[in-house]
Design brief:
245 residues; alpha+beta; Jelly Rolls; five-stranded antiparallel sheet; 15 strands
């Protein structure tokens, strides 16, 4: 059974979150994570967006590069290709999980939020079903004291479940537990398969909220974050965002 909730932005309905009708083997996923060396975890590039430790292992990245943890919006990556990294070779079950998603894959990452760490409230540029690109979360290791909020609504995600979250809206995360939280995070493009998965929802809810579209100040902050990354891909994306100012 899947659950779907919607928010209304001015006169536009947006999907807030959805629990997809998919469940994966938690033990097998955890075995793959434990198989990876601790030193493979790379610090998340948006250092100003978190406190504590937030780290990443790329499984699909631009050009399959093991050091690339950047996720680039589809419209800005038309000539770039996401490919498996060497780390995925060590994760046979996670490979099965990833291959079960029948939509165009982009960035796929393991993301760990250490115990006592927080991800500050922010919005991810155009990362929503309505914009044609989604981010799916599959908890591999979590605890009851992980608090993930989207639009001030707490989303409780259990190990092995698969969730779509509209991260173009305000969201934040706190790991108040004693153990680290690890999610498999899959980015991809919307297609008919994904639409069919989301259409299996049985619970809907609408609410009216203020306009959450990016203003110029927010776009400028995103540009600054991209420039701090220093990669050519990030610089090119920053240049495209400047056209919206």
């Amino acid at each position: 059974m899947s659950s779907v909730f919607w928010v209304r932005i001015q006169e536009r309905d947006m999907l807030l979150y959805s629990k997809l009708p998919l469940v994966f083997n938690v033990h097998e996923m955890q075995n793959d994570v434990f198989r990876l060396e601790q030193q493979l975890w790379q610090k998340h590039y948006n250092a100003q967006n978190f406190e504590g430790s937030w780290t990443v292992i790329p499984l699909y990245s631009l050009g399959g590069k093991a050091e690339s943890i950047l996720s680039v919006h589809a419209e800005n990556a038309a000539n770039l290709h996401y490919e498996p990294t060497v780390y995925l070779q060590q994760c046979p079950y996670l490979l099965e999980v990833i291959q079960s998603f029948q939509f165009p894959l982009q960035s796929v990452r393991l993301m760990k939020l250490n115990a006592g760490s927080i991800i500050k409230e922010h919005m991810d540029y155009q990362l929503s079903f309505e914009e044609g690109e989604v981010r799916l979360h599959i908890p591999i290791i979590t605890n009851d004291n992980v608090e993930f909020y989207v639009q001030d609504e707490r989303i409780i995600m259990n190990e092995g479940e698969c969730w779509y979250l509209n991260l173009s809206l305000r969201h934040r995360v706190s790991n108040n537990g004693k153990t680290d939280r690890v999610h498999l995070v899959i980015d991809g493009k919307v297609n008919d398969w994904l639409r069919a998965m989301l259409n299996t929802s049985v619970i809907t809810q609408t609410t009216t909220v203020k306009n959450e579209q990016f203003d110029k100040e927010t776009i400028q902050k995103i540009i600054q974050e991209l420039l701090q990354q220093g990669t050519q891909t990030a610089i090119d994306l920053a240049d495209k965002l400047r056209t919206q100012l």
